[in-house]
Structure to design on (122 residues):
């Protein structure tokens, strides 16, 4: 499965880049766990951050950010088979969960809920 990892990125950071990077690292650690179950993980920021940088975003929440950040995640949800919602308050991640449920996609809250694929990678 292609699984979107949803959790805090900007939330709770007051736009501190160090805290935002720590949140991205948590998302990426969860992505590795999903990969090791044999699935392809995706994090919206992996697609959105380079686009925002090239489009000229100057700071989190500016017009360029708003035009790209959430639309990218919502577009990814059109391609994903499931969502893995990691812990932490996040309006964006909660929105991802809502959209996934509307589409009938499974939403996992614990790694042990995600079924292992036939080929595990360690």
């Amino acid at each position: 499965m292609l699984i979107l990892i949803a959790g805090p990125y900007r939330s709770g950071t007051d736009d501190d880049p160090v805290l935002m990077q720590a949140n991205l690292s948590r998302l990426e650690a969860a992505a590795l766990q999903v990969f090791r179950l044999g699935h392809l993980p995706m994090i919206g920021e992996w697609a959105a951050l380079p686009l925002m940088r090239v489009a000229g975003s100057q700071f989190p929440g500016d017009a360029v950010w708003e035009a790209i950040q959430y639309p990218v995640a919502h577009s990814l949800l059109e391609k994903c088979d499931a969502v893995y919602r990691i812990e932490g308050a996040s309006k964006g991640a909660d929105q991802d969960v809502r959209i996934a449920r509307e589409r009938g996609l499974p939403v996992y809250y614990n790694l042990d809920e995600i079924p292992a694929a036939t080929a595990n990678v360690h």
Observations:
- The mean pLDDT is 95.
